[in-house]
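Morning. Coffee machine broken again, so started the prediction first thing and wrote up yesterday's gels while waiting. Chain of 95 residues, entered below exactly as on the submission form.
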Amino acid sequence: MCGAKAGGPDARSAKPGETTIQGSVTRDGEPVTGYVRLLNETNEFTAEVPTSATGQFRFYAAEGTWTVRALVPGATADRKVVVQQGGLAEVAIAV
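Came back before lunch.
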């Protein structure tokens, strides 16, 4: 799995100072399983995780501007995220 706790991401599991990007992927309000990629400022691949059974994902990343790309059956969607050092960015992706 992606490291998210069953029932949803729990930012309290992050260590102090860690920068976290997490969220969920849905279609018509229902969770979607697939993969989520993290791309850096120049759109280069950095990481990929599978979504959980509830469509959730989590990345630990450096501060900066990132693209979160959902890759699910029949759809792809991108979201830009700006996160500060030690911050938490919540990303909801509807495909």
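The chain has one domain: 19-94. Going to sketch it on the whiteboard this afternoon.
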